Automatic annotation (TrEMBL), chain A:
The lineage of its organism: Eukaryota, Viridiplantae, Streptophyta, Embryophyta, Tracheophyta. The keyword tRNA processing applies. It comes from the Eukaryota. This is tRNA-specific adenosine deaminase TAD3. Belongs to the cytidine and deoxycytidylate deaminase family. ADAT3 subfamily. The gene is LOC107012323.
Automatic annotation (TrEMBL), chain B:
It comes from the Eukaryota. It comes from Solanum pennellii. This is tRNA-specific adenosine deaminase TAD2. InterPro entries: APOBEC/CMP_deaminase_Zn-bd, CMP_dCMP_dom, Cytidine_deaminase-like. PROSITE patterns: CYT_DCMP_DEAMINASES_1, CYT_DCMP_DEAMINASES_2.
Amino acid sequence: MENTESVLPQVCKIIHIPEKPSFLPHLQPTVNMLASVIEPKDANTLVRKLNKIAPLENLQHVKRVQKKSIDGGKPQLSLLLCMIVGNDCGDDCMPYEILELVKSFQLSTFITKVCKYAATSKEEWDEQCKLWPTSYHPPTYNISGITGFSEEESQSVFSFMRHTINLATSSIGQVVNAAVIVDPSTKQVIASACDQVISSVSLANGVSKDGSCSNYLENLKASNLENQQTSLLDGSISACVHPWQWALRSSGCWHPLRHAAIVAIEYSAARDLQLFPDHKALSPLKRQKIEESGFHSNGHSYQSLRPYLCTGYDIYLAWEPCAMCAMALVHQRVRRIFFCSPNSSAGALGSVHRLQGERSLNHHYAVFRVILPEKVFRNKVVDGKTSGSG
Amino acid sequence: MEDFSHTKNVEQPVPTPANFAVLNNNQMTSYAKETFEFMKLALEQANDALANLEVPVGCVFVEDGEVIASGRNRTTETRNATRHAEMEAIDFLVQQWQKNGLSPLEVSERFSKCTLYVTCEPCIMCAAALSYLGIKEAYYGCANDKFGGCGSVLSLHTSNSNLPTSELASSKKGFKCTGGIMASEAVSLLRSFYEQGNPNAPKPHRPLKQHV
């Protein structure tokens, strides 16, 4: 779904980028299993025995028993025995205990395919069950948007993304990355920033003493020409796309790690300190007392209103963030990430890495790509005289 | 904020692409004495963090055998969960070098001579940052099973440079990375932090374990 954008988009779209690469529903990976038709009266005994001797360890989503109605509506039960080890499917591919069962219950075995991974959508599940029944649990975490956006929500997302693209394309007359942190419950912008890997101040004010910044830009344009993409934001010097190339720039005030998302996080933290200056780290004992007293005792009531870092907030980015920025957004507890252009050289939300799928992390956000009609940017990019590829 | 309650006391250095022989505990002494001296300084930084109710992780940057920067977590104070020890030290260095009039290329050259000593494996964010800067080498204490970017979750310190040589100067270089240096000291600092309770963490879903 994510990489079908060779045709210029005509309409705005929001695409969820899931935790694992998505497969077309009918092309999901499968594994071969040994199965057998069984007598209904033996079902309970067999399932109990099999769960002990051959548990479905990595296939928790697969059901042990398949019930089919054959001609005349008579139900027929089939049972998964075990995984198939190797290519050989004679008796020696079966563990000894399974072989015993097959003999004592006089089972005639056959091979069946089952889906390797749990379904992540209703469509996937429907296809899975055509092979062998599985169970389907829709995502347990409930981040709104994964299951679709209302018209109103969509319009709000598009408008914040347009705002972000405006920032990315107009700040210094060059396409950089831009980040806008939004509280979706109030539709309020919490913080916004552009890359400060090159200082926007020095460029905008022409402080660049020897014009060497433009050499840097020329270099980047040249390197961009080498791997042209039909990207909307072509000619970009987005820090997340070229994180290793900071040393090529040569004057003014700069910092190799001040990517847009990092700066926006810094601004939102500063805002938080300003709005809630009195909040002090409480000693564990005091903290416990406050919690016991119901949290609303004098002077501490607003503490419960103060958001914890960026909990509940969305961030809009012109470009898919690099690993540094994507992990920073995990640390700062952002709820949803919307980006416009994928980042094939260093993107960490599906292109090179996929942080939203790293289950060991202690926080997970939902990731969306927002597609806006091409002309919105084309104009911007041409205005900014940065379209190296035309 | 950062949850390091899962950190592991690494007994063996994590294998790295340019690894020298993997050493076991008995052979740890074959590290240069200065490796431990610098890690002790990083632990001092971590201690300072603990005294200030911050997640106790600390680091030092070393160039030509000399400590040129140190840092420790400042996430609670700043309410910015990205203010890890490494980021603090890096910002100090960039500012310092800029003040001295160094160009970005010169700064890049300086970073390429730096060795980092940090009490806990750099997280994915910091490991990516260290790779962008192109440091020479990193030594860390305990592994970071849940966030680690130097082998535990991702391996951002390795270079897989298949770029044309013309772009190599400005591309991903990778850095040598060795774990398990004074790991138990690093872990015990983190443990004491979590036992007193992270004052900045959101309200826990389950009550904290009470230690008698």
